[in-house]
Design brief:
The complex is a heterodimer of chains A (394) and B (342).
Chain A (H helix, E strand, L loop, with lengths): L11 H4 L2 H11 L5 H4 L8 H9 L18 H13 L5 H17 L2 H12 L5 E4 L15 E4 L3 E12 L6 E7 L14 H5 L2 E7 L5 E7 L5 E14 L3 E2 L5 H14 L8 H14 L5 H29 L5 H26 L9 H17 L6 H11 L4
Chain B lengths: L2 H21 L2 H10 L3 H13 L21 H9 L6 H13 L9 E5 L1 E3 L2 E7 L7 E6 L2 E6 L4 E4 L7 E5 L9 E2 L4 H30 L1 E2 L2 E2 L4 H24 L9 H26 L10 H13 L4 H14 L4 H10 L4
Parallel strand pairs in B: 1-4
Antiparallel strand pairs in B: 2-3, 3-7, 4-5, 5-8, 6-7, 9-10
The chains are: A alpha+beta (394), B alpha+beta (342).
Chain lengths: 394, 342
C-alpha cells in the first residue's frame, strides 16, 4: 500500500488559476478578522457561494452538460486550497460541491442529474449529509431511520444528528434503512455483509412537511450542526439515489471524496499564518524554539500536501482511493491538531509577553474546535481500522 | 510524476533491488559489521562496481549515465531497505562531484561529511559508513577535500555500527582543497533521508508480517485492535517518510535543492525513531535479539537520524527561511516543492 503514493504534479493549467482566485477573494471578502476566517469551511455565506458559482468555480469536476466546468480533481484541489488558505466562508456549497454532486453524477438517474447538478453549480442547492444518528456514530451501519415503500414513493421516519448546516440546506442525502438486514449467517452478531444490507441513500427535500431541523450550539457558541427529525415525511419515488440496498457501498465511495481533499490539512492554517506574521513583526527575531516549530509544521505540511495531491491524482483518474484517503486524513488532522497546541506553548513561553488579542482569540477558537478535526468525516479510530483492513489485518 | 517517469524510475531501481537481494542478504550485512573492511566488504563492493550503478550520477561526457537525483531515488531507498553496509549513495554523489571538478576518482567506497579544523586535526563527526569507507569527501571551509580513511582514527558509535567520527591528526594540505558551490550537507541529507525511508519500509513490512504470524491468546496479534492501530500509525509514518525522501531527491541534477533536502531530512528523521520504536514494541523480546533481522534496520534508523543533522537542525533552517520570506505557509511550501522546471 505504501507504493500507492506516487509523486504527482498539479498540472500547470490548474495552478495558473491561483491569481484569479486570489483576486476574486480580495474583492468578494471585505476585511474579515482572523478569528472569523479561522472558521473557514464552517463559515456559511450563501452570497459568497453564489458569487463563486458565477465565476464557474462550483461543480468544477462536473460535466459541462450539467452546468459544471468539466475540469479535473486537480482543478478543484487548486481552487479549494486557495479558498481554505484564505479562510473563505465555503460552508454553504461545501458538501454539494465536494461529495453530493459527484455522488449524484455517479449514481443518479439522468433525470436526477438534470434536476440537481445545474442547481449545485449555480449555488442554488445546498446539501447536507445525513449519516450519524443518536445511536449510530462510528457504527454507521446501525442506522435506524427508515423509509418504507408507499404507493407514490417513500415514507420516512427517524432522526439524524450532527448534520452540519441542515437548518440552512435545501437537501439532505441520507443513509437510511429501506429493507431488513440479511439473516445472521454466523453467531449472534451477524456478518458485516448482512449488517450492510438493506441500506439505501435518499435525497430529502428539507422543505417538506414533517422535517424539523434544530441547530445545536457548540462549545465555541457557534451553531452549525443540527438534529433533524423526520415524521411521516412523504417522498417521491425518485428520492432514491442509486440502487435500493446499495447504500453502504455508495456511502463508502462518497467518503473517499469526503476524506481526500486538502481541507484535512488547512483547518489551522489561518492561525498558523497569523502566528508567522506576528513572529515577523516582532522585530527582535524569533527564538530557536519558534523557528524549529515553524519549520516542523511547514516540513510536515509540505509532505502531507504532496500525499494529498497524490490522492487527488487517483480521484482524477476515476479511482476510489478509500484507504489512501483515510491515511492522509489521519496524518493531516494530527498536524492540524498539533498546530494550536504547539503555538500556544510558543506564545506563552514568557509569562510577561504582550500578545495581540486577535491572535489569542484565533488561537482560542482553533484550540476549542480542534477535537472535531479528527471526529468529522470518520474518527481517528475508524480510519486506523480502515487502514488495518487495507493492510490485510482484518 | 508522469507515468513514464515512474516506469523509468522502476527500470533503474528494480534491477538494483534484485541485485542487493542476491548480494546483500542479512548474513552478509552481519559479516561486514563483524569484520569491517575485509573479504566480504570487498566482494560486495566489487559486485556494486560491476553493476555500473556507482556512476549513475556521473555526467555522460565523463563516462557516467548522467542521471539526475530523482531517477536514482529507488537505488538510494534500496540501500536502506537492505541495510547495505557500504556507502553506495554517498559514493555516487562523490564520484559525480569529483568527475565534475576533474579530480581523480578512486574506485573504493567514499563517505561524505562536513569537517572542521581543530589545531592540526581535521575532524568529521557523525559520519555514516565511517567504518567501511576507504575515502572521505569532506566539505571544509568553502571547499572539498578527499582524504584517505586509512589514515584517520575511527571513533565508532558502537561495535557493529557503521557511523562514527573520523579524525585525521595531520594538518590539512590546503593545495588539495577543491573550490565548489555544492553543499555536501544537503546532498548527504537527501541520501540519508532516502535510506531512512527504505529502512522504515523494511521495519514496517517485517512488523506487519510478524503481527500476522505471531499467535497469542489464540489468535494472531494483528487481530487485536490496539495492535492494528499501531501498525496503521507505522504505515502512515512510513508513507510520509517515503514521500519526504522523494521530495528531497526531486532534482534535475545530481545535487538536490536546498529546501527540499531540508524537508526530507527533517521529516524522515522524526519518523525514524517513531517507527523504530513501534516496530520494537510490536515485536517484543525477539526483536531485541542479534539473530533476528529487525535490529539491522532499527539500529541504522537511529544512527542515520543523527547524521547530516537531526530533525531540529533542519526544522530551524526551514523556519528561518520561512520567516526571512514574506510568503504565507502555502506559498512557501509551493515555492519549496510545488513546481518543477520542465
Amino acid at each position: 500500500m505504501l507504493d500507492a503514493f506516487q509523486r504527482e504534479l498539479i498540472p500547470v493549467t490548474d495552478d495558473a488559476l491561483r491569481p484569479a482566485v486570489r483576486e476574486f477573494l480580495r474583492e468578494a471578502l471585505p476585511k474579515v478578522s482572523a478569528e472569523q476566517r479561522a472558521r473557514s469551511w464552517g463559515g456559511f455565506d450563501a452570497e459568497f457561494s453564489r458569487a463563486l458559482a458565477q465565476r464557474g468555480w462550483l461543480g468544477l469536476t462536473l460535466p459541462r452538460a450539467y452546468g459544471g466546468a468539466g475540469q479535473t480533481a486537480f482543478t478543484r484541489f487548486v481552487v479549494v486550497e486557495e479558498l481554505l488558505n484564505a479562510g473563505a466562508p465555503v460552508a454553504a456549497h461545501w458538501i454539494a460541491d465536494r461529495q453530493s454532486g459527484p455522488l449524484i453524477l455517479k449514481y443518479g438517474t439522468e433525470a436526477q442529474r438534470q434536476f440537481y447538478l445545474p442547481k449545485i453549480c449555480r449555488g442554488e442547492a445546498f446539501f447536507c449529509i445525513g449519516m450519524s444518528e443518536p445511536n449510530s456514530g462510528s457504527d454507521l451501519a446501525s442506522v435506524k431511520t427508515r423509509a418504507t415503500k408507499t404507493a407514490s414513493g417513500w415514507r420516512l421516519n427517524g432522526q439524524k444528528i450532527w448534520t452540519t448546516h441542515a437548518h440552512r440546506s435545501h437537501y439532505m442525502i441520507a443513509l437510511v434503512r429501506t429493507g431488513h438486514p440479511s439473516a445472521p449467517k454466523v453467531g449472534a452478531g451477524g456478518s458485516s455483509e448482512s449488517r450492510h444490507d438493506g441500506l439505501s441513500q435518499l435525497i430529502i427535500d428539507l422543505s417538506l412537511p414533517g422535517v424539523t431541523a434544530r441547530p445545536i450550539r457548540d462549545l465555541t457558541g457557534d451553531a452549525h450542526f443540527c438534529e433533524v427529525f423526520f415524521q411521516d415525511v412523504d417522498l417521491a419515488e425518485d428520492a432514491l439515489i442509486g440502487a435500493e440496498g446499495s447504500g453502504w457501498q455508495q456511502v463508502t465511495a462518497e467518503l473517499a471524496f469526503e476524506r481526500s481533499g486538502p481541507e484535512r490539512l488547512y483547518s489551522s492554517i489561518v492561525l498558523l499564518n497569523e502566528w508567522l506574521a506576528w513572529l515577523r513583526l516582532r522585530g527582535d527575531g524569533a527564538d530557536a524554539k519558534s523557528l524549529a516549530l515553524a519549520g516542523r509544521v511547514l516540513a510536515r505540511h509540505a509532505v502531507l500536501r504532496e500525499l494529498s495531491i497524490s490522492v487527488t491524482g487517483k480521484l482524477a483518474r476515476g479511482e476510489s482511493p478509500v484507504v489512501e484517503a483515510a491515511l492522509v486524513k489521519d496524518l493531516g488532522t494530527e498536524l492540524e491538531q498539533f498546530v494550536p497546541i504547539a503555538i500556544a506553548d510558543a506564545l506563552a513561553s514568557q509569562p510577561d509577553a504582550t500578545l495581540p488579542t486577535q491572535l489569542l482569540r484565533t488561537l482560542t477558537y482553533v484550540t476549542q474546535v480542534a477535537p472535531s478535526f479528527s471526529l468529522r468525516g470518520g474518527t481517528r479510530e475508524v480510519l486506523r481500522g480502515m487502514i488495518a483492513r487495507g493492510l490485510g489485518l482484518r | 510524476m508522469s507515468e513514464t517517469e515512474t516506469l523509468a524510475q522502476d527500470a533503474i531501481g528494480a534491477p538494483f533491488a534484485r541485485m542487493l537481494q542476491e548480494h546483500c542478504a542479512p548474513q552478509v550485512v552481519r559479516t561486514i559489521e563483524r569484520d569491517g573492511i575485509g573479504t566480504a566488504s570487498t566482494a560486495l563492493w566489487q559486485a556494486l562496481q560491476e553493476s555500473g550503478f556507482i556512476d549513475a550520477l556521473v555526467a555522460e561526457q565523463q563516462g557516467g549515465a548522467g542521471l539526475d537525483l530523482r531517477s536514482v531515488y529507488g537505488i538510494l531507498e534500496s540501500c536502506g531497505r537492505h541495510a547495505l553496509p557500504l556507502p553506495l549513495g554517498e559514493t555516487m554523489i562523490a564520484r559525480a562531484l569529483l568527475a565534475h571538478t576533474g579530480h581523480h576518482v578512486p574506485s573504493e567506497p567514499i563517505a561524505l561529511g562536513c569537517a572542521r579544523r581543530e589545531g592540526n586535526n581535521v575532524i568529521c563527526g557523525l559520519t555514516p559508513y565511517a567504518r567501511t569507507a576507504h575515502w572521505a569527501l569532506l566539505q571544509i571551509d568553502a571547499g572539498l577535500v578527499l582524504l584517505p580513511c586509512a589514515q584517520a582514527q575511527r571513533n565508532l558509535l558502537a561495535a557493529p555500527a557503521g557511523t562514527g567520527e573520523l579524525r585525521w591528526a595531520t594538518a590539512l594540505d590546503t593545495t588539495r582543497v577543491m573550490q565548489t558551490s555544492a553543499s555536501l550537507l544537503h546532498a548527504q541529507a537527501c541520501v540519508v533521508a532516502a535510506q531512512i525511508a527504505g529502512a522504515l519500509g523494511r521495519v514496517f513490512d517485517m512488523t506487519l508480517r510478524y503481527a500476522n504470524e505471531r499467535v497469542q491468546f489464540g489468535k494472531p496479534i494483528g487481530k487485536f485492535q490496539a495492535v492494528q492501530h499501531q501498525i496503521s500509525v507505522m504505515a502512515e509514518h512510513s508513507a510520509m517518510a517515503s514521500m519526504a525522501a522523494r521530495i528531497g531527491c526531486d532534482s534535475d541534477s545530481y545535487l538536490p535543492y536546498a529546501q527540499r533536502a531540508a524537508i526530507a531530512k527533517a521529516v524522515t528523521s522524526e519518523a525514524a525513531s517513531h517507527v523504530a520504536n513501534l516496530g520494537h514494541a510490536l515485536h517484543g523480546a525477539i526483536g531485541m535479539t542479534e539473530e533476528y533481522d529487525l535490529q539491522l534496520f532499527t539500529r541504522r534508523l537511529h544512527e542515520w537520524r543523527l547524521c547530516a543533522g537531526a530533525e531540529s537542525f533542519w526544522q530551524q533552517r526551514i523556519g528561518a527561511d520561512l520567516l526571512a520570506s514574506s510568503a504565507d505557509a502555502l506559498d512557501f511550501v509551493r515555492g519549496c516543492v510545488g513546481s518543477r522546471s520542465n
